[in-house]
Known about the structure:
Blueprint: E1 2-10, H1 15-23, H2 27-35, E2 38-46, E3 49-56, H3 60-68, H4 71-80, E4 84-85
Amino acid sequence: MEKYAWRAKLKEGKREEYIRRHDEIWQKMKDVLSAAGIKNYSIWLDGDDIFGYYECEKGVNFAAKVQSESEIVKKWNEYMKDVMDMPLDKETGAQPHLVRVFDFN
């Protein structure tokens, strides 16, 4: 299973709203993540920094493709624009991919 991590920034004063929206995440969004083979997804906050991590059961490229082609993900990204800044990867159209430099199992 491939691992994937991304980061973004909260907009000033939007922490509670960001949390609320994830507490109420759309079922259709969860369905897309499942269809993309995404498992063990967690999002962490440190001040205004957002860090996301998930594992890709069908591979990172497959997960990125499913997300970038999904109308639901496009709507979610539009919905989240007022609470966070996250430029999408120009090649995949998905979250910006971080480079893993260490892994301890």
